[in-house]
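Hello,

Our lab assistant flagged a job as stuck in the queue for most of the afternoon. It eventually completed. Since we weren't sure the result was trustworthy after the delay, we are filing this so someone can double-check. Below is the sequence as submitted and the structure that was eventually returned. Let us know if re-running is recommended.
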Amino acid sequence: MSKNRIFSSMFMIAVTAAAIIYEWAFILGIVALTVGGLYEFFHMIKRKGIPIYSYFGILIGVAIPLTIYGRFELTRNWEFLFIVMAFLTILLFQFARKDNTNAIVGISTTMFGVFYVSWLLSFLIRVRFLLPDIAGVKLLAFILIVTKAGDIGALLVGSVLGKNPLFPRVSPNKSIEGCVGSFCFSVAAAVLCSALLPPGLLPLWKVALMGFFFGGMGQLGDLSESLIKRDCNVKDSGKFLPGLGGVLDIIDSLLFSVPVFYLYMSSCLKLM
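-- returned structure --
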């Protein structure tokens, strides 16, 4: 592991810890990651020559976590109305363009970027405030630790023992051994951090299964971003931190694990 990766990882751990503890740092971090992730996504798409609405997409992308944090609700499930209105606005922009080449692809890609980066990432806010005060902070810490432990396990085990490619056409550097290591690290992290969950909510064996499942969701998120980068012919989504790559490279595993964790925990808490 390179020195740049170690220093960047330590920096991200410190920033993440501050964001978990301090609410102002948390929402500021979410907005910054949303802007950075959308910028990188739209930049990669532009390399393919697709006409997208990047600035409007970033504007809508920032509005989603801010309105969720501010508990802004015009109607029930207002975020879907919000996305529909954004889609109609992009259509109006397209009508004003002289060239309609790749119009459908550009509109679809812009909306996909908002959904993929902003909406999925905003579930961090939902998890943070699913329970009041410190209980919500613990829930957020649990899913972050479980997901990122899987990332660390894949890197460590894959770099030492990795011999058999997992999906070479999607990500040539990922191995079956790294995948197994990721599952093991996520399960271990879930069991060790079970105290972060509400007392008596789940038996330890179910917590271990949670680690396995959400660790797998994290790997799926990682592979999905690798697929996007492969299609855009780039190695890293950006150069946000030396050794770690861009913002999307940092948050990719969270984009799938956190929303599913929120839905699962919501169901569990309703049964208490």
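-- support follow-up --
The delay was a queue issue, not a problem with the job. The result is valid. The chain has eleven helices and two strands. Residues 3-270 form one domain.
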